[in-house]
Design goal:
The chain is α+β, with helices and mostly antiparallel strands and about 525 residues long. The protein contains 16 helices and 13 strands.
Length: about 525
């Protein structure tokens, strides 16, 4: 028996900083970048004395890192003890410090395993299913984790080889590319110790996607949820309840692993897909935070009975619009420190900060409403909608009004321009907030790039995702104009990424994604 589950990365296009506090909402798009978790038994057969075991074995493998960690899992407490690890640096978490002893190989994976096993034990109550669960655990767990290349930055390697900053170069990389580590210090001498990995991340929420994929695969494997019917999920049916349980466990594991209770939009997007998100009350995880995830049965029993008050509403880009992400390569940004500076500004100037947040909230709502309106117009008047977007994709926004020849087309153009205006308002207030808080939410270099992008043919929006900074830019583009924007970005020293919006959340996969990628590659080979 083998279970493969995947979960997507995210892009927060509106609601940065505001989404940290209820009742503010954020617009988050899930992406084509996915983490995969493969769960299978370590042993096919059980020994005659296995019924008396107090521990079982867990092996976690990351082929991209050539790393493997083994654990003992307490069958009574659902807690892990690391027994061996060839992973001295934890890349997937972005924690670059040297590991000493057997402290931890990957807190996100470890918490995902502990919370998932505890959830299975708490929620599986009837005798037959409990016996099946016990057998699965006694067979041991072998977990393999794979992350799409889109989560990682290959810009330095591309530049070092003198290759152009184009999507085609990224496309030439093998799927699930190996992640290499530096072995030099700053002066170029060899240290014999691994240092910061050469491959940085692209800010798509890798830890949330990874945690969610592991939780999803384990909960399905252990018979706690059924991910086979996700297409029919709604809040009231069984599939919807399974997703809600998965969300609660993934949020809990992720928060405990990162040592703080964040807004949770990244995990929510990984579970449910593209959405309008309002955070849960942090108090929901107070018991888990107090115990640090040690009394697993009690913690999980409390978590699954809590009334989770996060709000999610389906949201995705309207038809004939595409998401393009770019990596400027102009330095990194620390989201936690930027958030801390903004919070400090809120305390020091409560009146001004409240005014700014109010204006941002209004502009975010206008943007959401206009995009929803465009979705509705596309549904009700497809021919008019398609005609307008195809035409506007070849024109700068100043000429969009010229394409409307009837009432429906005028409504569509008006909504497009209103969405642009709302987003320009968002950018303005985000810049003001950054200046007031002393952090580069939209640095000048980004502003110049984004302004130039928004003045191109077919561009609806261009901005910095999430908390902003130097790490990434995004654009929402009409029709077939993406290639022109990608070429312009490449010429400006920005690496256009391959990732696109994919509104799906967590998914049960048919098999190992590496097998699928190989099959696709083989089928594309032409023999002359």
């Amino acid at each position: 028996m083998e279970v493969v589950a995947s979960a997507p990365g995210k892009v927060l296009v509106a609601g940065g900083y505001l989404v940290l506090e209820r009742p503010n909402a954020g617009l988050v798009l899930s992406t084509s970048a996915r983490f995969y978790a493969i769960v299978r038994p370590l042993r096919d057969e059980l020994s005659h004395d296995s019924w008396a075991w107090a521990w079982t074995d867990v092996k976690v493998t990351s082929p991209q890192l050539s790393r493997e960690a083994t654990y003992k899992l307490s069958l009574k407490k659902s807690t892990l003890q690391l027994t061996s690890s060839r992973q001295v640096i934890d890349h997937l978490l972005g924690l670059w410090q040297q590991r000493s002893g057997l402290e931890s190989a990957n807190p996100f994976v470890e918490q995902a395993v502990q919370f998932s096993v505890a959830a299975a034990k708490v929620t599986v109550t009837d005798k037959e299913r409990k016996e099946a669960l016990d057998k699965l655990l006694l067979q041991g767990l072998h977990i393999t984790i794979l992350g799409c290349n889109d989560f990682y930055s290959y810009r330095k390697q591309i530049e070092a080889r003198g290759l152009p900053l184009t999507p085609e170069v990224l496309l030439s990389l093998p799927p699930f590319c190996s992640i290499t580590f530096n072995s030099e210090v700053a002066n170029g001498t060899m240290t014999g110790e691994n240092c910061k990995p050469e491959v940085a991340k692209t800010g798509l929420g890798s830890s949330a996607a990874m945690t969610t994929s592991v939780v999803a695969a384990l909960l399905h494997y252990l018979g706690t949820v059924n991910l086979s019917c996700l297409g029919q999920s709604s809040s009231g049916n069984a599939a919807g309840r399974d997703l809600d349980l998965l969300h609660a466990i993934a949020q809990s594991a992720h928060c405990i692993a990162q040592g703080k209770i964040g807004s949770g939009f990244d995990v929510s997007a990984a579970v449910y897909g593209s959405q309008r998100y309002t955070r849960f009350s942090p108090e929901i995880l107070s018991s888990a935070q107090v115990t640090g995830g040690h009394c697993m049965a009690d913690v999980v029993a409390d978590i699954v009975t809590q009334s989770w008050d996060h709000e999610k509403a389906k949201f995705s880009l309207p038809p004939l619009m595409s998401l393009l992400l770019g990596e400027p390569g102009t330095g990194g940004s620390s989201t936690p420190s930027m958030v801390g500076s903004v919070k400090q500004w809120q305390k020091s100037d409560p009146q001004k900060s409240k005014e700014t947040w109010s204006k941002l909230g209004i502009a975010n709502s206008v943007l959401e409403n206009q995009l929803r309106n465009l979705n509705k117009l596309a549904e009700d008047h497809w021919e008019a909608y398609e005609s307008v977007l195809r035409s506007c994709s070849c024109l700068t926004c100043s000429k969009w009004t010229e394409v409307a020849t009837n009432q429906h087309q005028e409504l569509i153009v008006r909504s497009l321009l209103a969405a642009r205006d709302a987003f320009l308002e968002i950018r303005l207030h985000m810049r003001e907030m950054g200046i007031a808080a002393g952090v580069p939410i939209e640095p000048e270099s980004q502003t110049q790039l984004l302004d130039a992008t928004m003045n191109m043919e077919g561009v609806l929006l261009a901005g910095v995702p999430g908390a902003g900074g130097f790490d990434a830019v995004f654009s929402v583009i009409l029709g077939e104009a993406s290639d022109a924007v990608a070429k312009a970005w490449s010429s400006a020293g920005v690496l256009p990424l391959l990732v696109r919006e994919d509104p799906r959340g967590v998914s049960l996969e048919a098999g190992d994604p590496r097998t699928r990628e190989v099959s696709t590659a083989v089928s594309s080979i032409q023999i002359n």
